[in-house]
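Hi R.,

As promised on Friday, here is the backbone we talked about, encoded as structure tokens. Could you run it through your design pipeline when you get a chance and send me back a sequence?
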């Protein structure tokens, strides 16, 4: 029985056709055939070219219909204007996957033809990889159907890349760094198959333990989030996203035809999914190499072993930067290391065996660490000294690495002259995690710990937060009747009630008498705000008065608001004045939710005022969110200590924020007509005293989305 799912055939094809196979070695159509042959692909290879003949000893077929065997992949490498006809031939041959190398589609504005090709392919049971790609490599089939430089080493790291040129360059780089690959997929314009489809296969692929994605823009972020959450429960996933800077984002947008999403959102959501975000391709390679072979740690505490004090301190700094915890039980440290090191060394962590240490001292310290079950990972540092026999160092590290390899993670950092640089290069080529710069090494260990924490985190089923969608739609429909895409104050109040949010008490007064009466009923001090569909920016129009202490102040404020609003907009229809309880002061936060162009429904949290405006201290999560994700979003912001309570202040009502975040997440996920919700401020009181949504703004589509 055939149990292969669709996408499996892309990685494990039984037959591959190359449409545009050429005898001319300068052409891409030749290079691809050459790579397939040289890599030793075991299935059938069918070069296609109307001219016929032979290429690299293989018969060239004039067209697909002349091929007798099954063709699971057709690699298409003919000019754009000829591609659609070739796709039709592929459909007639029941090809499963089209790997369209050809450029000249949506990336240069030829969107329609690309769309038509994909629609046709899908209608005929075919999936499309590309167009505008350099191909695919799969170790499962020993298939290199790319026009890269060849020489890919088989291994455990899978690479998915949106950039072609960078991806091709990565092939050479992986070979230079002896990084073995299980797969390499160029996704280019992602017209059909995207990261999520590829991840779906890689999640099941036993050869793959680490996945590295190079992304420029996210198209179907909602699906990607779901897929990443599953994959990171089994494998390490690393991402490099370009377009971080504003200029970078513009460059990426023009060159791949997909807009780079706002970087902060991307960053937060990757964290939510347990994905490791690297700053650079080099950092990603370092991590991938290390994670592919490193055992998972059994605990959090690392030990630094060094022959130099300075480099030990640098490593300590690096540990803080990358979130690596250091073993700190001084008594055990002394008991473990004092017997194996020179008497003048230091057995505090960093363990400083000193510059006078011999190779034997160094080795004994490493082994003492390996034998201690309470110490979980090692950072072994070496500064070149005249006393240490550097010639023996390479062998010593190789032996130690072999001992550690299955048991505990270890990284080495060597600092010194040419001899050491040679050792670094030689050992790295053999897969030993050795670095010249200690920060590079500790960064790898930090990545392992972050991924490990995510792997270890207990599974959390998303809670279904009930939202009365019918009641929400009813409020929106009433506004829609007036052709409004936003809610007025009293409507927002109703919405808050539907969601069960606590808001300050408020009454809409139609005249001065009612305003005075309302203020008396609510209790002083109060706030007054104009209610008018013609005045959106109430403060700008002089439509808000704060902290009114008594009846006289209410009367004055009422008249002042009316005067200023009339002056601001003569014909504005003023429905009334909202009299609102003045919220007690607390920590002002901002919490919102919206439909994001890349990720769909997302939730946002930050501290209000200058924190959000100047410091941009905000965090995001893809909705709907679990309780733990909501907590993580709140604690992600830099000013989180303010919520925990500083200088003797009490902890704030963090659970209240989490509750609101989950409700907004459920609302924006279930009511896709709502484009934006913003509560600003959400005033947060001390623990046990709740939170208050002082101002709720909701924007939505004026026509109902039919789903
Ligand atoms: N079926 C099979 N072969 C066909 C064909 C068809 N329907 N129509 C033409 N061919 C043959 C041509 O005769 C030629 O063979 P030849 O060398 O024996 O003459 C071969 O296919 C290639 O066609 P050619 O017109 O020479 O095109 P090319 O090789 O110069 O360019 C592409 C084709 C696809 C490489 C080019 O159009 C392109 O898109 N280049 C950019 C690729 C790229 O950068 N991709 C993204 C990387 S990240």
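Update: got your reply. Pasting your designed sequence below so it's all in one thread:
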């Amino acid at each position: 029985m055939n149990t292969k799912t669709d996408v499996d055939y892309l990685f494990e094809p039984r037959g591959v056709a190359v449409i545009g196979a050429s005898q001319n070695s300068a052409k891409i159509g030749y290079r691809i055939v050459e790579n397939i042959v040289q890599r030793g692909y075991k299935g059938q290879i069918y070069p296609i070219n109307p001219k016929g003949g032979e290429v690299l000893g293989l018969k060239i077929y004039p067209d697909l219909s002349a091929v007798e065997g099954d063709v699971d992949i057709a690699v298409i490498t003919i000019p754009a204007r000829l591609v659609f006809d070739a796709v039709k031939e592929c459909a007639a041959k029941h090809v499963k996957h089209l790997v369209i190398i050809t450029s000249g589609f949506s990336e240069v504005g030829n969107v329609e033809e690309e769309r038509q090709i994909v629609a046709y392919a899908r209608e005929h049971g075919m999936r499309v990889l590309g167009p505008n790609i350099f191909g695919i490599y799969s170790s499962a089939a020993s298939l290199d159907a790319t026009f890269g430089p060849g020489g890919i080493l088989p291994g455990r790291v899978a690479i998915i890349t949106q950039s072609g040129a960078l991806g091709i360059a990565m092939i050479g780089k992986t070979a230079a760094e002896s990084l073995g690959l299980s797969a390499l997929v160029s996704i280019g314009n992602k017209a059909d198959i995207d990261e999520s489809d590829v991840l779906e296969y890689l999640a099941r692929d036993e050869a793959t333990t680490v996945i590295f994605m190079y992304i420029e823009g996210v198209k179907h972020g909602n699906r990607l989030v779901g897929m990443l959450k599953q994959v990171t429960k089994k494998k390490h996933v690393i991402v490099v996203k370009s377009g971080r800077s504003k200029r970078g984002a513009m460059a990426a947008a023009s060159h791949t035809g997909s807009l780079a999403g706002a970087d902060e959102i991307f960053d937060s959501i990757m964290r939510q999914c347990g994905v490791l975000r690297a700053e650079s391709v080099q950092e990603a390679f370092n991590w991938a190499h290390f994670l592919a072979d490193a055992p998972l740690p059994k605990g959090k505490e690392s030990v630094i072993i060094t022959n130099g004090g300075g480099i030990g301190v640098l490593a300590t700094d690096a540990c803080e930067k990358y979130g690596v915890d250091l073993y700190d039980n001084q008594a055990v440290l002394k008991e473990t290391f004092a017997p194996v090191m020179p008497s003048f060394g230091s057995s505090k962590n960093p363990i400083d065996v000193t510059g006078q240490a011999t190779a034997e001292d160094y080795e004994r310290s490493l082994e003492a660490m390996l034998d201690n079950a309470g110490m979980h990972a090692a950072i072994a540092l070496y500064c070149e000294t005249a006393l240490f026999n550097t010639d023996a160092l390479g062998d010593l590290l190789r032996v130690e690495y072999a001992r550690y390899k299955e048991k505990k993670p270890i990284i080495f950092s060597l600092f010194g002259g040419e001899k050491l640089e040679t050792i670094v290069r030689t050992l790295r080529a053999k897969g030993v995690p050795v670095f010249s710069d200690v920060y590079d090494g500790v960064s790898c260990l930090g990545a392992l710990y972050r991924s490990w924490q995510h792997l270890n985190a207990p599974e959390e089923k998303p809670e279904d937060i009930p939202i009365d969608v019918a009641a929400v739609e009813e409020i929106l429909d009433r506004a829609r009747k007036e052709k409004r895409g936003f809610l007025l104050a009293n409507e927002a109040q109703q919405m808050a009630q539907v969601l069960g949010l606590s808001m300050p008490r408020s009454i809409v007064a139609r005249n001065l008498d009612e305003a005075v009466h309302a203020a008396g009923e609510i209790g002083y001090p109060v706030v007054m705000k104009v209610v008018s569909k013609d005045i959106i920016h109430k403060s700008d129009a002089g439509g808000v008065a704060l902290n009114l202490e008594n009846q006289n102040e209410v009367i004055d404020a009422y008249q002042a608001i009316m005067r200023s609003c009339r002056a601001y907009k003569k014909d504005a229809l003023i429905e009334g004045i909202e009299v609102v309880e003045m919220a007690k002061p607390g920590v002002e936060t901002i919490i919102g939710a919206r439909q994001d162009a890349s990720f769909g429904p997302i939730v946002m949290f930050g501290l209000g005022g200058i924190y959000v405006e100047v410091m941009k201290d905000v965090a995001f999560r893809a909705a709907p969110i679990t309780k733990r994700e909501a907590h993580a979003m709140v604690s992600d912001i830099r000013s989180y200590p303010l919520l925990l309570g500083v200088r003797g202040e009490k902890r704030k009502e963090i659970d209240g924020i989490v509750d609101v975040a989950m409700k907004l997440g459920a609302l924006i996920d279930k009511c896709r007509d709502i484009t934006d919700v913003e509560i600003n401020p959400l005033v947060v009181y001390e623990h046990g005293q709740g939170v208050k949504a002082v101002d709720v703004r909701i924007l939505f589509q004026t026509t109902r989305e039919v789903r």
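One thing I noticed while checking it: DSSP finds 24 helices and 30 strands in the chain.

Thanks again,
M.
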